[in-house]
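Supplementary Data S3. Sequence and structure tokens for construct A.
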Amino acid sequence: MISTLVTLCAVVIMFALANWQLHRGLDKAQRIQSIASVSSNASLSLERVLTLDKDIQDLPVSFTGAIDPQKIFLVDNRIHQGRPGFDVYGVAQGQTQNVLINFGWVAGNSMRNDLPQVILPNTLSGALGRVVEPTDNPMITETATQEAIWPKVIQQVDIHFIEQVIKLELPPFVITLTDSSDGFIRNWQPVVMPPEKHYAYAVQWMGLGIAAFLVYFFALRARFRAAHKKGSHEQHE
């Protein structure tokens, strides 16, 4: 009985993981197709993006505004080519709205408490980027406080938390700059793992689930046959 429950639980979990990977792959494929469709469009202004009712994820943006060079957020544990560093975020003021800007990646120093020296421009004029809606990872615990200490190291981009720190209202998205700039590495990758890899994982989990079920099925059938032969033998005696 216990072996049956364990096997059924394992098979259900494996099938659930296969289904999850499949849907992840489909979502990635849909996003890649969406990016390809909007990439041919002209860049929009921040003010135009704010008026749209449709999905704005990955839309191209051309931004002009003033930057507060003091309010710098460093998102920790960002890896580029095997080297740890930070994603640099700053607060910009457009014509009608403040917005969070992702300037790109900078390398960290050998000592963790020795933060890199980051210099932001005072203004951006016609800077090109993409609209990115940050996702909240419940597995990440924020270690930063709301004290105005700059630069501020944070664990993930939480718009609500950043609003509380800077005492300003922000839209629920970030402009991730994509054009080149000295001092920052910009390698915008909206889809890190391709859909094909998710599909491969889905096939693997499905195969493991089927294999586990077959092993249990044949083991159970062999047990029933052995019990049946034993019973027949005892009746003949």
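Construct B, processed identically:
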Amino acid sequence: MDYQNRIGSKKGSGGVASESQLNVHRKQRVSRLISSQFDFESDPYVFKNHLGSLECRLCLTTHSSSESYLTHTQGRKHQLNLARRATLDAKQQGGTHQATGTTSVQKKSYVKIGRPGYKVVKIRDVDAMELGLLITIKYPELKQGEEPLYRFMSAYEQSVDTDSQGWQYLVVHGEPYENVAFKIPSTEITRSWGYFDEDLKEYYVQLFFKSPEELT
């Protein structure tokens, strides 16, 4: 990232980058890392049409680039449709098992070792002028071969927080740690994604809100 010719810099040296510029650079870097690891060949829902655009057969949407499709797959609409599809497949497989007399797969069990450490930072997309959050969660003892997962949960899906009007929850799961939930405004989320750094053992979740209002 070139920081030359910026205020506070000397000729021939790197300039001073603002916090928003660093956030843009960090977002682009992690986005490239995710794109390089995403296998489009194994995605059963992606289809390249005659115009060269990518279509999502699950959500019936069209995307001009692989980055746009990747962002869509991390969004709320695609994740909800994946969950519905998985539920439907599970019901169909359950009916097949009952008819053939086979046994179902038992749920995995593990010993929880407590809550992971985390950090929440407010960010802004300088292009779309959208406010968002960057959440970093540390998983130093994550199970080998496992990756954390996240999902959004409405206030109506829980009974712990009674004063939850106008809020929703971001729930992150990583075995063998306890689930962690972040209370966020119930504003529409335009895009979100998660990335696990195996070297640092850190899981990043970034999301942006449609509303331009300041986050509380």
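The CA atoms of residues 93 and 114 lie 34 Å apart. The radius of gyration is 20 Å.
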